[in-house]
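Human: Cast an eye over this sequence-structure pair and say how the chain folds.
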Amino acid sequence: MIRIFLQLLVIALIFVPSALSILHVQMRVISGIPNDPNPLRLQCKSGDDDLGMHELKTGEALDWHFGINIFGRTLFFCHFYWGAKDQVFDVFNTHMDIKDCLPSKVKHRDYSCYWLAKPDGFYISNGEKIWKKMHDWPV
């Protein structure tokens, strides 16, 4: 009896984590930063994933997707660098207002979130049409 229970427990631990991510998010960070003198650099991370350092020229984007853990806290933050300026903030967390994102048109994704970095700050959009300013570059 104990052996069967342990086998079922091992199977559950293999398959349950993906089942706990019932909502899926497509994330996009777009550079609206002029390339001169420096393009936008950024590094985005969660507790589980480090997407590495990226350099985006004007109009380029960094895209990724992830599942939202229904029993935990899902969080992605990005550290942005532009010349001597830098800024870090959450680009997604489970306490954000989900209306800032849009039901996704990408197959197998529930929401799409867009961020735009510009010289005057950082904007979020629920579909790349209406942008709401959320953060400034520090002075």
User: Anything to note?
Assistant: Helices lie at 2-20. Residues 9 and 36 are 56 Å apart (CA to CA).
